[in-house]
C-alpha cells in the first residue's frame, strides 16, 4: 500500500511502469490475488476486501495521474501557440439581392405612409380569384397557370400577391395604405425570363376620393426613388378583372436611358408591373362601400425590379445560390 501511494507518476513512462508493476495482469496485485488460495478460509473475506481496496486505490492513482498528464500536454501545446498569427478570415454571408430590393421597396413606400402586410402562400379560391372579380369557372384561373393543391381546386398556391389586398380589406376599415411583398407561384417552364416561383410586391390604397392621379404620382415617386431621379414612367391601358381602369406600368430603360437596347428590345421602356383603380365589385366583395370609398392597387415583380436595378440578365441566378453571384452583393443592406 505504501508503494502504491508513493510510486512516481510524473510522466508517460512512469505511468506505464506503474501500470505494469501494480495493475496489469502480471502485476503485484494480481499476484496477491493469486496467493489468496493459501489464506485460511476464515480469513479470506477480510484479506479479499483489503486486496480489493488496494486494487481500487492503485487504479484511482493511475487514472488521476493520466488525466493530469493529458491536461499538461494540452497546456504545453497551447503555450506554443503563436498569438501573433492572423486569424482565419471570418466570411460573413451576404443579403440576397431579392431581399435587398424588397427591403428597399418597402422602405420607399413606408416613407409615404404605407405599412407592411403579408398573407398566406397557400390560398383558397375566394381570396386568390373570386373576391377579385374573376368570374366563376372562368378560364382566367387556367390562364394564370395555377398550381391547384386540392381535388376540388379550392386550395392553391397563390398566383399573385393580390390575395393580401382581399384579406386586408376584409379585416380592416379604410383608410388603408399597405405594401405587401411575397412569393407567388405559376406553372411555367423555368427559363432566363420565367420561373414557377417568383416574388411580387402588391400595393393598396383605399380612402375617400382616391384617384388615378394618386396612383400615377405614387408610382412615379417610387420609380424615382428606386431607380434614380431621371427615371420616367408610363402607363399602358390593360385589363385585370379586379381593377378598372387598368394599366401596365413601364419605366424608362436604365441601360440605354430610352435610346433603345436589347434589354428593352429597342423600345426604351421596360415593364415593371400592373395597376389600376380597385374595381367597385372588389370593394363590395370585401365589405367596403364603393359609394363612399375608392382605391388604387398595383402589383410589381420583385425579380424584374432587381434585374433592372442590378443589371442581372438571367432570372435563374436568383435560385442557384452560386456564391460568385451572391458575393457581389456583399455589404448592401
Ligand atoms: N395581380 C396582377 C398580376 O399578378 C398585378 C396587379 C395587381 C394588377 C394589382 C393590378 C392591380 O399580374
From TrEMBL:
Q: Where in the cell is it found?
A: Cytoplasm
Query: Which residues participate in Mg(2+) binding?
Result: 244
Query: What residues does the Aminoacyl-transfer RNA synthetases class-II family profile domain cover?
Result: 105-328
GO MF terms listed in the record are: phenylalanine-tRNA ligase activity
Enzyme class label: ligase
Provide the cofactor note recorded for this chain's UniProt entry. Answer: Binds 2 magnesium ions per tetramer.
Q: Which family does it belong to?
A: Belongs to the class-II aminoacyl-tRNA synthetase family. Phe-tRNA synthetase alpha subunit type 1 subfamily.
Q: Which HAMAP family match?
A: Phe_tRNA_synth_alpha1 (MF_00281)
Its subunit composition reads:
Tetramer of two alpha and two beta subunits.
Matching PANTHER family, A to Z? PHENYLALANINE--TRNA LIGASE, MITOCHONDRIAL, PHENYLALANYL-TRNA SYNTHETASE
In terms of NCBIfam families, this protein maps to:
pheS (TIGR00468)
Q: What is this protein called?
A: Phenylalanine--tRNA ligase alpha subunit
Q: Which organism is it from?
A: Pontibacter silvestris
Amino acid at each position: 500500500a505504501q508503494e502504491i501511494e508513493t510510486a512516481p507518476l510524473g510522466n508517460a513512462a512512469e505511468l506505464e511502469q506503474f501500470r505494469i508493476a501494480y495493475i496489469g495482469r502480471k502485476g503485484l496485485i494480481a499476484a496477491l490475488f493469486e496467493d489468496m488460495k493459501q489464506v485460511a478460509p476464515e480469513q479470506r473475506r477480510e484479506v479479499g476486501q483489503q486486496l480489493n481496496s488496494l486494487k481500487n486505490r492503485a487504479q484511482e492513482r493511475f487514472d488521476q495521474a493520466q488525466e493530469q498528464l493529458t491536461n499538461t500536454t494540452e497546456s504545453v501545446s497551447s503555450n506554443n501557440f503563436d498569438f501573433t498569427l492572423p486569424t482565419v478570415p471570418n466570411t460573413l454571408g451576404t443579403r440576397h439581392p431579392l431581399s435587398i430590393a424588397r427591403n428597399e421597396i418597402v422602405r420607399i413606400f413606408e416613407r409615404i405612409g404605407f405599412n407592411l402586410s403579408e398573407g398566406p402562400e397557400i390560398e383558397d379560391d375566394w381570396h386568390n380569384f373570386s373576391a377579385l372579380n374573376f368570374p366563376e369557372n372562368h378560364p382566367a384561373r387556367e390562364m394564370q397557370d395555377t398550381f391547384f393543391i386540392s381535388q376540388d381546386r379550392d386550395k392553391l398556391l397563390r398566383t399573385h400577391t393580390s390575395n393580401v389586398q382581399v384579406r386586408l380589406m376584409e379585416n380592416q376599415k379604410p383608410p388603408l395604405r399597405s405594401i405587401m411583398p411575397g412569393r407567388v407561384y405559376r406553372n411555367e417552364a423555368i427559363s432566363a425570363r420565367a420561373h414557377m416561383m417568383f416574388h411580387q410586391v402588391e400595393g393598396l390604397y383605399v380612402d375617400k376620393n382616391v384617384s388615378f392621379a394618386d396612383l400615377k404620382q405614387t408610382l412615379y415617386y417610387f420609380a424615382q426613388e428606386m431607380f434614380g431621379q431621371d427615371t420616367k414612367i408610363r402607363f399602358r391601358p390593360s385589363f385585370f378583372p379586379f381593377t378598372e381602369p387598368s394599366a401596365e406600368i413601364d419605366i424608362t430603360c436604365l441601360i440605354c436611358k430610352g435610346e433603345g437596347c436589347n434589354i428593352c428590345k429597342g423600345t426604351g421602356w421596360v415593364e415593371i408591373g400592373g395597376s389600376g383603380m380597385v374595381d367597385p365589385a372588389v370593394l363590395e366583395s370585401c365589405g367596403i362601400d364603393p359609394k363612399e370609398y375608392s382605391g388604387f392597387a398595383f402589383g410589381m415583380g420583385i425579380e424584374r425590379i432587381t434585374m433592372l436595378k442590378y443589371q442581372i440578365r438571367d432570372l435563374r441566378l436568383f435560385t442557384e445560390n452560386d456564391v460568385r453571384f451572391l458575393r457581389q452583393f456583399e455589404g448592401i443592406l
